[in-house]
Amino acid sequence: MATSESCAVETKTLPIQLPLDFSSIQSVPESHAWPESNEDQVENNGDGSLVLPIIDLNDPKAMELIGYACENWGAFQLKNHGISKSVIEELEVETKRLFDLPKEQKLKALRSRDNPTGYGTFWITPFFQQRMWQEGFTIIASAVQDAKKIWPNDYQRFCDAMKKFEDESRVLIEKLIHLSFKFLGISEEEEKNWVGPNNHAGAIQLNSYPICPKPENAMGIAPHTDTSIFTLLHQSQSSGLHIFKDGSGWFTVPLVPDTIVINTGDVLHMLSNARFKSALHKVSVNNVKHRYSMVYFYRPTMDQVVSPLVPKNNSDEEPRFRALTFKEYVGIKDKYLDKALSIVSIKED
Ligand SMILES: C=C1C[C@]23C[C@@]1(O)CC[C@H]2[C@@]12CCC[C@@](C)(C(=O)O1)[C@H]2[C@@H]3C(=O)O
Ligand SMILES: O=C(O)CCC(=O)C(=O)O
Ligand SMILES: [Fe+2]
């Protein structure tokens, strides 16, 4: 996260913070002002010479295209991904229904330090001095408990929409794991340890980025990498996601109909022995259209041991990360955020 806008502090010392009441806000308060946030927001893809890959999952070369995108970008947009239009539509309706509620109703499901699910600001918020122009809702395992707090008599349709999104996302991500592991030369025997009901934990993150009166001074979400194996993302109503490409800079991910965005996370970076990037990404906001995003994280279970899988097939290559449980890695990320990957890397003499 070595960008000028990054201002991560080392430990999470601040108390839990509430999202702003965006319904009444007329200007960007001091607490949410990022003076230099958009200075390096160069549209590198402006001349069309280099763009984030758009891959068709039905392409006979899908495996190579996905492998190439993961190596060079840590992200791509995917067509013919198999997530039904009706599932995306319901997901959008329910996400908007949630965020359109009055603040007091959303606060009934407020997250806490001990309970990471429900309504609130991003988990990474305390690492930054400035606040982000966002409100979110996190679902782990089931939405029922939190949705019931918000809609005691009308939570089922929200939960059904989330469940369908999770089910279809999981199927897609397991296909992507299959293709990317094959690309890396990881055996099907090994692949079995990373897919299936007992070998993963899913999480959904719904994000709302309200219209901002001075977007050039605000930040939707600060640059970060996800902790996942793969992350699947649908951006709704407006673009705003930017991916950092080493040596080139920030690229805007355009809204392309019928595609979803896939990015690789820290765990796949470690499993691939750093062959695949863990995509650094951020979100900008705008003064025209309220933006939403719906995100599914495919992660290992807490007791799974994460270590590079590639050297097992290639004795010339040294492992670049030490083996550790996912729980230990989450603990390190929780404390050191963007430094977590370098903390678990094996330093060369
Ligand atoms: C399952 C999870 C991944 C996540 C932390 C969390 O427990 C719930 C929210 C996720 C999210 C979404 C926004 C970016 C991110 C870094 C954050 O602050 O919260 C991710 C976390 C992650 O990938 O580690
Ligand atoms: O809203 C987006 O496009 C990205 C959100 C994100 O990075 C996340 O939830 O991890
Ligand atoms: Fe993210």
Overview of the structural elements:
With 349 residues, the protein is an alpha+beta fold. The protein has nine helices and 14 strands. The strands form three sheets. An eight-stranded mixed beta sheet has the order 1-2-10-7-12-5-4-3. Helix 1 (62-72) links the parallel strand 1 (54-56) and strand 2 (75-79). It binds the ligand C=C1C[C@]23C[C@@]1(O)CC[C@H]2[C@@]12CCC[C@@](C)(C(=O)O1)[C@H]2[C@@H]3C(=O)O, 2-oxoglutaric acid and fe (ii) ion (FE2). Fe (ii) ion (FE2) binds next to loops. One of its GO terms (molecular function) is metal ion binding. This is Gibberellin 3-beta-dioxygenase 2-like. Keywords: Iron, Metal-binding, Oxidoreductase.
Offer a concise description of the structure.
By secondary structure, this protein is of the alpha+beta class. The protein has nine helices and 14 strands. The chain has helices at 62-72, 85-99, 103-106, 144-150, 156-184, 188-191, 266-271, 326-336, 340-344, and strands spanning 54-56, 75-79, 118-120, 135-140, 201-209, 221-224, 230-236, 241-245, 249-252, 260-264, 281-283, 291-299, 305-306, 324-325.
